[in-house]
């Protein structure tokens, strides 16, 4: 006989812990909301929301766990809900001394995965996310020159700033920094197991800022906070908004961005209404920061590959990046694993054969990086990405597709006497060259060839004034 | 007129050196054994065994060489048989002073490859191996962070211990060590030209131990000793058992393992009976050593990606690792070349087209590493492999196959107050997910989907006691 | 109304600057040569040559620019022609103080790409090259151990000298140097955007010399001088000869080679006759230099993988390297991007589908490196390439082709008491093993299987004398 323990968050913010036979905590929560238990704590504190549940093989185990949790502090309950095992351990220690993890606590850890009782991670469903919940993602990463070589070999990037220590040093930096997009993909990859393993679609990015420059040898950690939850009217999915932060080994923020994904729901019952956050359409110019030390007064335009400075670009100007890059299965898989992003859709052909596309999807970050590498041809001096205003993967990319790209100058900003910034729209297409700048039709619909619509700020040398 | 010089090892351990016209030393040895030369040294010392032979273009060259070898010490003859050119050179110097390599010695080196008179390596055949023979393998390798990046990108490994210096430092290590499997594949790769270039099948591993941890910057050398020789009854092949040791630049043993391969014979004549060694079925728990410095008292379970500790695993427990990874030709070729393993079956499509499989075989080490990377999902804290008890490549893997994996806990051991060890069976399949844990049927036959049956020990944090 | 400014170089070496309506500077130059303007400076200084032109959207802009250029020094005009923006900026500063780039100068930089008014690089056409012109190529590169790992993983190279720091140190070097071919490909890659983006064919190499050894951490820059220009009789193409030099961060020459490519012409008008340079057929033995510090007195033949020394090789000897390597699309693309060589023919399948081959071409350097890696089997001790005498890509290589190789010893030279050099012809084939050493037929025509004919010098240990 299976059973479960559950916690409800009441309308007044208090928590209710209960246990029940069966396997459906959502149905149990719905009964509470329907007023089925007039004597319960919850009756006058409705609506309640199911915030945590845990399966047990036996009813007596569930009852024992219910009693134990009822004795816990609010902080410890919240650590439990947030699956914050470090905090849970700390709180447990605080209470009773050294290392007193109980059998139940071990059972909880054992059962982190929820209803399947397996140790493998089935990913979070929409119901698993809480507004304000903070996730510390797994697998910190020391970025090395090996990663940089692979990034070059997988994208074809030719920006001198990331290619040569000498060039970077002439720009005031201690050595060649890591391409901000490589750091972005690595941070992003860490979030996948917690946020988007059950994602239906990666809907967009906003408010991305690249702060402390990342150098080989730096170690990046990632955390995400849930900043918005919005269920879809179909009852099957919801949109989860998170703000993810990549932090280096000194605790400095290397990058930060908001992202929203459509995630499957576990059940189809109505949930308490939740809303998405308000995100900025464009990163404010005042928030743009050139990486510490960057000066362009000794910039070598020959070595950079083009003579164009900040003043040479006009708002509204469009640039075809001309070259095309055909993607192979091995290439996007190697790149995506380099980022330790192991979402099944990119790797499991057997499973994807039966999907609506019938094949593996290329990770969107691969498209961004190829497009940015192609953009060298026309934007060679706009190497350093400062901010991401908005990003959208408009259509899926597959192996054997050829990626082309074009850019439009959307805005300009002057950061320092030698450093300017261009706001650029980077549009990538598949199997259609970009001489005609394909984007949207009169009705605002994207051209079917467009795969990426990416709006960002990049630093560029200012011309002598 | 072709000729050859040959050495026979007699029943009393003495060596007989002779020369003869033609190209068939094995036939000549058979005549000795048949008693065709009653006056010869060999007649009363039968059975004899052919232990060395060398072709010459002209009879007079062969006779001159025969005379020269007859004057050599036993040690020098054995250096010649073992193709130990460094030792041969040393002995030559010892005898007559500096650098007296004779024309014949140069000819010998020239003709190392044996009967083809070419400088390229045709690989060793079963008859070329001697019990007790020690081979110093070519191409030492300084392992770098570049190798580590590629390993991540080719396998998708997410174990925090190998990914982040900070995480490894919190576990008492100076920096992130190299995944023991990467070191294993690199050591293994070096042995292929000497041991398995003419292998029919890689039959198994045993008694593998990972000792000194390997860090980027370390240089690994490999040596192998022949510990068993067993001819097959078909007369066409034999099984060669070796113990291979990987040593770092300080002379410390980084890893050691036994391996046996089926190797083609050059001829089909009967050989003196030889036997295989006795190898342990499981590495003894008392031989398990956590890498120097490893302590898990500050282990960060969030960053590691799962809360499960030593105590959470029960013997008999089975874990489906859920995810699948489809392999591409480019991926397995890149990985196998990274290990400097250049066995033809993995690379030469033209040749393999006419093989029984009709395509290139994926190196078995690629399957091991992918399966171990998949095992993160359920065994995230069992990162560090301590020992290999047994390993068998049950069925071949090809490009476009999708690899899945599951594990079973076979045994447990407590190494230090903070470090435990799990004995795990890692089973990998192709094109069949592992929710049902496919392995063997009632008759003990492997499920045809199984490609790997790998039995190893891995370190894991112990829970607070 | 479009217009252009142009500069003609007169027969007496003087420059004439003019402007005109329309879009065809070549036609305008032809009118000058035809004597259409008897009053012009050019009339008595014919033949003239069009050395520079720049489009403008409006006639008044062109006239303003013409006036400005007419006031410039000869040095500044030449900086303009050479598109040497750093020099142009320096000269501008010298004239009027700090940072006085005019709107016109900015316009010039803006329009570097010439007639399309786009910022992307359409590549140089035959008419764009000037004899004696020096190009500083873009994207310097700090070579890292990550690049070395990828080179190993993409080629399967097993030469101990490049694989292990300990082995290299025993050979007198501070650490394992970078394979000279890796440095060559990286330098070569930088030249592509300036020299061969519009190339029809890469015709050959000569006079290649590897000088300062390259170590991980070194930064390579590349410059090329145009040393020959020869138009083809079809009027559609010409042959451009360049000498390219790769320089490290200390200003030392790491390598240098001559190369000639067939490049498309923009127009079909007759040009002033030009000639190709005379290049040495073979690098002079006296110019061969072993890398600084290299001594082979402690060379370990076991670790190197073969016993053969300098004295073991005879001129005329041919060696089949036996093994075959099948190339995949992902592999050659990753390798070619590693070298930051982004020539479209290697990457854009959509475009190549309609080419005469119907598929992507493998970069010739990939074939060289695979063949050299295969050559380990027979030439394991000839690791270090000292010079390139001649190189020719005889037939194109495509993905799924299997590469084989053989070598012939062409010559020998003794460099130091322990270092010898072999002059080797390396022949690579596709889909035909090399036991029969396929090369040329009686009429001197290459066997259709041959893809590469490469003549080089490599260092090898000398035997004890």
Q: What would your notes on this structure say?
A:
With 465 residues, chain A is α+β, with helices and mostly antiparallel strands. The first copy, chain A, has two domains: 3-120, GIY-YIG endonuclease; 135-461, Hotdog Thioesterase (Thiol Ester Dehydrase, Chain A), CATH 3.10.129. Helix content of chain A is 26%, strand content 27%. The first copy, chain A, has helices spanning 25-33, 59-70, 74-81, 85-96, 103-110, 145-155, 160-163, 165-170, 180-196, 301-304, 329-338, 349-352, 364-374, 376-379, and strands at 3-9, 15-21, 49-56, 134-136, 141-142, 199-210, 219-231, 237-247, 253-264, 318-320, 325-326, 385-393, 402-414, 419-430, 450-461. In chain A, the strands form two sheets. In chain A, strands 4, 5, 6, 7, 8, 9, 10, 11, 12, 13, 14 and 15 form a twelve-stranded antiparallel β-sheet that branches. A three-stranded antiparallel β-sheet of chain A has the order 2-1-3, sandwiched between helices. In chain A, strand 8 and strand 9 form a beta hairpin. The first copy, chain A, is elongated, with a radius of gyration of 25 Å. The first copy, chain A, starts with a strand and ends with a strand. Chains in contact: A-B, A-C, B-C. At the B-C interface, helix 4, helix 5, strand 5, helix 6 and helix 11 of B face helix 6, helix 8, helix 10, strand 11 and helix 11 of C.
């Amino acid at each position: 006989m299976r059973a479960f323990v559950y916690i409800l968050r009441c309308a007044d913010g208090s928590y209710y812990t209960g246990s029940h036979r069966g396997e459906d905590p959502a149905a149990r929560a719905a009964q509470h909301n329907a007023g089925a238990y007039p004597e319960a704590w919850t009756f006058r504190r409705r609506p309640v929301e199911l915030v945590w549940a845990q399966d047990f093989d036996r009813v007596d185990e569930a009852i024992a766990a219910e009693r134990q949790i009822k004795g816990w502090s609010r902080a410890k309950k919240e650590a439990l809900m947030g699956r914050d095992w470090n905090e849970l351990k700390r709180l447990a220690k605080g209470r009773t001394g050294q290392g007193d993890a109980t059998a139940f606590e071990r059972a909880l850890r054992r059962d982190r995965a929820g209803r399947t009782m397996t140790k493998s991670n089935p990913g979070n469903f929409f119901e698993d996310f809480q507004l304000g919940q903070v996730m510390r993602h797994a697998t910190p990463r020391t970025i090395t020159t090996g990663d940089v070589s692979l990034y070059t070999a997988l994208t074809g990037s030719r920006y001198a700033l990331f290619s040569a220590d000498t060039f970077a040093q002439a720009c005031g930096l201690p050595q060649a920094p890591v391409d901000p997009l490589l750091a972005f993909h690595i941070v992003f990859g860490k979030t996948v197991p917690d946020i988007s393993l059950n994602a239906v679609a990666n809907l967009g990015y906003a408010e991305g800022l690249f702060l402390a420059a990342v150098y080989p040898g730096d170690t990046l950690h990632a955390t995400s906070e849930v900043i918005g939850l919005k269920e879809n009217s179909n009852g099957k999915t919801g949109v989860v908004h998170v703000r993810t932060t990549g932090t280096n080994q000194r605790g400095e923020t290397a990058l930060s961005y908001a992202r929203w994904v459509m995630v499957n729901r576990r059940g189809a019952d109505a949930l308490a209404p939740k809303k998405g956050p308000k995100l900025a359409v464009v990163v404010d110019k005042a928030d743009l920061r050139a990486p510490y030390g960057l000066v362009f007064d000794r910039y070598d335009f020959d070595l950079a590959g083009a003579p164009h400075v900040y003043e040479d670009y006009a708002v509204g100007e469009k640039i075809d990046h001309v070259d095309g890059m055909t993607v192979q299965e091995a290439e996007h898989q190697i790149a995506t694993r380099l980022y330790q992003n192991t979402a099944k859709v990119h790797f499991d052909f057997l499973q994807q054969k039966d999907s609506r596309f019938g094949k593996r999807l290329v990770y969107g970050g691969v498209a961004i990086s190829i497009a940015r590498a192609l953009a060298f041809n026309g934007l060679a001096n706009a190497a350093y990405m400062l901010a991401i205003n908005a990003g959208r993967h408009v259509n899926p990319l597959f192996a054997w597709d050829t990626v082309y790209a074009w850019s439009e100058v959307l805005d300009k900003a002057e950061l320092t006497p030698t450093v300017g910034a261009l706001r650029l729209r980077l549009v990538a297409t598949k199997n259609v060259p970009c001489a005609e700048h394909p984007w949207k039709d009169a009705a605002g619909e994207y051209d079917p060839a467009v795969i990426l619509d990416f709006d960002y700020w990049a630093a560029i040398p200012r011309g002598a004034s």
